[in-house]
Automatic annotation (TrEMBL):
<keyword id="KW-0808">Transferase</keyword>
<dbReference type="InterPro" id="IPR000182">
    <property type="entry name" value="GNAT_dom"/>
</dbReference>
<dbReference type="Pfam" id="PF13302">
    <property type="entry name" value="Acetyltransf_3"/>
</dbReference>
<dbReference type="InterPro" id="IPR016181">
    <property type="entry name" value="Acyl_CoA_acyltransferase"/>
</dbReference>
<feature type="domain" description="N-acetyltransferase">
    <location>
        <begin position="3"/>
        <end position="163"/>
    </location>
</feature>
<protein>
    <submittedName>
        <fullName>GCN5 family acetyltransferase</fullName>
    </submittedName>
</protein>
<dbReference type="GO" id="GO:0016747">
    <property type="term" value="F:acyltransferase activity, transferring groups other than amino-acyl groups"/>
</dbReference>
Amino acid sequence: MECKIREWQIEDAENLASVINNKKIQDNLRDGIPYPYTVEDAKEYITSMLSADKDETYTFAITVDDKAIGSIGVFRCNNIHFRSAEMGYYIAESYWGKGIGTNAVKQTCKYIFEHTDIIRIFAEPFAYNTASCHILEKAGFQCEGILRKNAVKNGVILDMKMYALIKED
C-alpha cells in the first residue's frame, strides 16, 4: 500500500483524533498526549506544528489517498547535537503490517537529508515494540544498543532501543 507524507492541514484534525484515540498506539508514545484525544486536541496539535520553528521541527501527516492515517516527526536536537534529530511516528491500527511505516520513515529521512543540514536521525522505541524496531531496520536504521531501564510508561520500567540512520548510510 502506498503512502505519502505531507504538511498537516487543519482539515486533518478529525482523522488525527480518530487515529491517536487508541490505547494501543498511545501505549507506545511518550506521555503528555491526552486520552481520550479529541478533535480539539488534534486542531491544537496541528496548529502548533504548522507554527513551529521550521529549522527545528519537521512534522508530516502520513496519508493514504490524501487521508491522514498517521503522523511522523523529526525534531532537531540542540547544543553540540544540533546536527542530530529524533524521529517519532505512529500509524492507525487498521494500517499496521502493510509497509506504510517503513515507507513513511524512508520518505521522511530522504526529505530531511536533502533539505536540512541534519546528518543523524535517531529513534528510541520501547524494546518490546518489535513492530517499530522492524520498521526502522527495514528503513536502514542500525540498532546502536539497548538503553536499559530507560523509561517508565504506565507505571512499568522499560528498556528502549537506540536506532540511528546516518546521512552517508
